[in-house]
Recover the amino acids of this structure.
C-alpha cells in the first residue's frame, strides 16, 4: 500500500528520547489550496 499524504515515515530517538528530524516531502505544501497550515501533527509510538 503506498503512503498517504502526510505519512512522513519513522523517526528514531536516542536513549534520552531526543531526535533530530529533517523532512523533505514532495506531496506536502505550506502554500496553496491544499496546504497543511492549521492541521494537526500526530506523533505516536509503537
Amino acid at each position: 500500500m503506498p503512503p498517504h499524504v502526510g505519512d512522513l515515515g519513522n523517526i528514531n530517538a536516542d536513549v534520552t528520547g531526543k531526535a533530530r528530524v529533517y523532512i523533505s516531502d514532495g506531496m506536502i505544501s505550506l502554500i496553496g489550496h491544499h496546504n497543511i497550515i492549521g492541521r494537526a501533527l500526530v506523533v505516536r509510538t509503537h
Remarks:
- The chain has one domain: 1-46.
